[in-house]
Amino acid sequence: GNSVTQMEGPVTLSEEAFLTINCTYTATGYPSLFWYVQYPGEGLQLLLKATKADDKGSNKGFEATYRKETTSFHLEKGSVQVSDSAVYFCALSVTGNQFYFGTGTSLTVIP
Amino acid sequence: GAVVSQHPSRVICKSGTSVKIECRSLDFQATTMFWYRQFPKQSLMLMATSNEGSKATYEQGVEKDKFLINHASLTLSTLTVTSAHPEDSSFYICSARYPRTGVYEQYFGPGTRLTVT
Q1: What average pLDDT score do residues A82-100 get?
Q2: Is any Cβ of chain B less than 8 angstroms from the Cβ of A46?
């Protein structure tokens, strides 16, 4: 079946620290992979995506590389800011209809 | 581009009443929209897939008679929570699939916080 496993939070980092949020997946077929971010009280925003193996998605300093050999799509940022505090969801889709979300990882960045 | 709106953003209703939530794609046509429910500090649970001009497809365990979905146009889907009860209180989020072949993206609305008293 299709599923996404994310590292559990919450994660608390100091400003300018390096961020990694692990995400692994299982999928039937060839999935597209996504990271979404949810700020308090808001819906989800697409942060970045990758549609095939070895693709790197990047946006706002965040990066994630589609690793088929390890079935992973880890999110990284070299220097986090207070404004990055949010909940991050890893997701996959095989058909474009059904999306499978991880449980989300809450990130708090302290000054 | 690819903006999805929801209305209302928050609603409080009394137990036994019905509430309608609207989801609109503002700058693109969406033949397929999705409704999710999110409990506090949890992930999104897909409730149903809404297809323009046809009946919605509900996920297992979701009561179709309680959560009525109508997708009457290419830019609007509505979710009506009928005879709401306190256990229906939740954050409801819609999304719309971007209509580009091979592009599997969904754009999400800002969510609707429903509180049933």
Answers
A1: 89
A2: yes
> What would the two tokens of residue B62 be?
């979701």
Residues of B in contact with A89 (CB under 8 A): 43-44
Test A43 with B6 for CB contact under 8 angstroms: yes
Strands laid side by side in the A19-21 sheet: A19-21, A75-77, A62-65, A56-59
| CA B25 – CA B73 distance, rounded (Å) | 10
Closest by Cβ to B108, choosing from A44, A93, A106: A44
- The four Cα atoms B18, A42, B41, A58 give a dihedral, to 10 degrees, of 140
Instruction: Return the number of CB contacts < 8 Å for A and B.
Output: 53
* pLDDT single digits (tens) B65-108: 999 999 888 899 999 999 999 999 999 999 998 776 656 678 88
